[in-house]
Amino acid sequence: MINKILEYNREFVEGKKYEPYATSKFPDRKLAIVTCMDTRLTELLPAALGLKNGDAKIIKNAGGILVHPFGSVARSLLIAIYELGVENIMIIGHTDCGVQHMNVDVMIKEMQERGISREVIENLKYCGVDFNDWLGGFDDVETAVLESVKLLEKHPLIPEKINIYGFVMDTGTGQLIEVKE
Ligand code: ZN
User: Fold this and answer.
1) What gap in Å lies between CA 64 and CA 33, rounded to an integer?
2) How far apart are the CA of 176 and the centre of ligand 1, in A?
């Protein structure tokens, strides 16, 4: 699998197929998007938003949510705001998300079946890793998006003039529905 990718990559560079993608590190639309790693959104999301290379910083994780106010997503957003000129943030959840209704107990069972010992898991719990908090899913995507929006609105390191919006995208059609309280 990886060989095919490397072979394609050589052809891509040799054929100068990179030329249409030339841009700078500063997002032209002054926009950052936090969204899910779902593979159905890889091309659909930028296409449905009319975004091209260079327009927006796109930060992805499982679910497209801020799990922690000082975690990697918040860190990326702060860099986007202070170093790269971002003024608008869109949190975009989506329908039929794999993180919805995810069961941590099932995942832990799966870990054990794949050779992670019960002791390791118990030790991590003892050291303060809350598996439900960290790996748990959400029940309702609108609520999850809204929680991330609120977390950013109240974030002590995000300036007031940054605009923060929440949306749910239809995974089939790419339609955006704004999420508000
Ligand atoms: Zn998802």
Assistant:
1) 9
2) 15
Which two tokens mark 140?
Answer: 């309702």
One-letter identity of residue 142:
E
Ligand 1 is a single-atom ion; what residues have CB below 5 A from it?
A: 36, 38, 97
Measured in angstroms, how far is the CA atom of residue 45 from the centroid of ligand 1?
A: 12
**Residue closest to 152 by CA, chosen among 71, 83, 93, 96:** 71
Alpha helices by DSSP H, listed for 20-93, are 44-49, 72-84
pLDDT tens per residue across span 17-74? 999 999 999 999 999 999 999 999 999 999 999 999 999 999 999 999 998 999 999 9
* Pairwise CA distance, residues 163 & 90, whole Å: 8
Q: What Cα–Cα distance (Å) separates residue 90 from each residue in 97, 156, 172? A: 17, 18, 19
